[in-house]
Specification:
Elements (H helix, E strand, L loop, with lengths): L1 E2 L8 E3 L13 E3 L3 H9 L4 E2 L12 H6 L15 H8 L5 H19 L6 H20 L2 H8 L7 H20 L7 H9 L10 H4 L7 H7 L2 H12 L4 H9 L20 H15 L11 H10 L4 H16 L1
Antiparallel strand pairs: 1-4, 2-3
Helix pairs in contact: 3-4, 4-5, 4-6, 4-7, 5-8, 7-8, 7-13, 7-15, 8-12, 11-12, 12-13, 13-14, 13-15
Length: 324
């Protein structure tokens, strides 16, 4: 849903409620001019569904010029440029541009972290920068539609980390509702860093086309423990965040790794990350297979849901994707 006051020419809208029955009003159309926007505003409709997949809007110039993966590197140890940080904190910029800022800042942060084993100073800088990103995501629902629409699907580990970080945070927000028992700001950092341990894995294994050998598979399965140890060594993040990293490949039936935990032994925060991690992996091209459609991926995941908690998380994920 987008407030009528934030509509743009080119957006594909659906007229809600009783207006569907009006003989002279199209129920679905592309906004062609400011006149259409003024008319919609005059009807008294406050918010309206927008289908971005059918919209014909260009990415804002601001997003093209600033919010890209190729944004200039920041000086010294700053994670992201002051220009991009300003965009994250500016409440006046359009939500679509804000979404590009969030995704670009996230990718820059994760790319820097995945280049080499981070030390305490780098992780502290990354955490503070991720707080700015996470605050944007938690700040309002209008941003979510744009964030999920511009999800990236390349094979870079840091891109996968961003996709999982964003969607896991949105799922946690939806699942836990208004409960104050969960620090979503801290959880978001854990979600973004869930694959940090892969910096200890040979890139040839991560990018291998075809089936991994037994030894390669065993090496890959160590990455949750590597990530946990990195954070332990530099004394960063909460215990719950470390458990996200350690347990995001555990499975309720005990078939996961690194410890083969069962059911309730797996923290719910790690379960959220595991579900989204699986969804993003299935809907992204990999060296050994092409990506699946979201519908196909969700059907596969549904067939493997073993218990009530996981079923509830899955239902919330489906609703979240459907709403946006």
């Amino acid at each position: 849903m987008v407030p009528v006051g934030e509509l743009k020419v080119g957006m594909y809208v659906t007229i809600p409620g009783s207006w569907f029955k009006h003989p002279f009003v199209r129920s679905r159309f592309v906004v062609s001019s400011q006149r259409d926007i003024r008319w919609l505003s005059a009807t008294g409709i406050s918010q309206i569904p927008v289908d971005l997949t059918k919209s014909k809007i260009a990415r804002p110039k601001l997003a093209e010029n600033i919010f890209s993966e190729n944004v200039k590197e920041s000086a010294d140890r700053e994670m992201i440029s002051s220009e991009l940080m300003e965009a994250l904190t500016d409440r006046a910029i359009p939500q679509e541009s804000k979404a590009y800022a969030v995704k670009s800042a996230s990718k820059i942060i994760m790319k820097k972290l995945m280049e080499k084993t981070p030390d305490e100073v780098m992780l502290r800088e990354a955490r503070e920068s991720l707080y700015e990103v996470i605050d944007c995501i938690l700040d309002g629902d209008q941003l979510n539609t744009f964030l999920l629409t511009i999800s990236d699907h390349d094979m870079y580990t840091y891109t996968h980390s961003v996709n999982v970080g964003v969607l896991s945070l949105l799922l946690a927000k939806k699942y836990f509702g208004n409960s104050d028992r969960h620090n979503l700001r801290e959880l978001g950092v854990g979600f973004f860093l869930h694959d940090l341990g892969k910096i200890k894995i040979d890139p040839a294994i991560i990018n291998k086309e075809g089936k991994l050998t037994f030894d390669e598979l065993q090496a890959m399965r160590r990455h949750p423990l590597y990530g946990f140890n990195i954070l332990n060594d530099v004394n960063q993040l909460t215990t719950e965040c470390k458990l996200i990293i350690l347990e995001h490949h555990e499975r309720v039936d005990g078939s996961g790794y690194p410890y083969g935990l069962y059911g309730g032994e797996i923290h719910v925060y790690a379960r959220i990350c595991a579900l989204v991690d699986m969804y993003d992996a299935l809907t992204t091209d990999r060296p050994y297979r092409v990506k699946m459609s979201p519908f196909h991926a969700l059907n596969i995941i549904k067939s493997e849901i073993p218990d009530f908690i996981q079923k509830s998380l899955f239902e919330n994920l489906v609703q979240l994707l459907g709403e946006n």
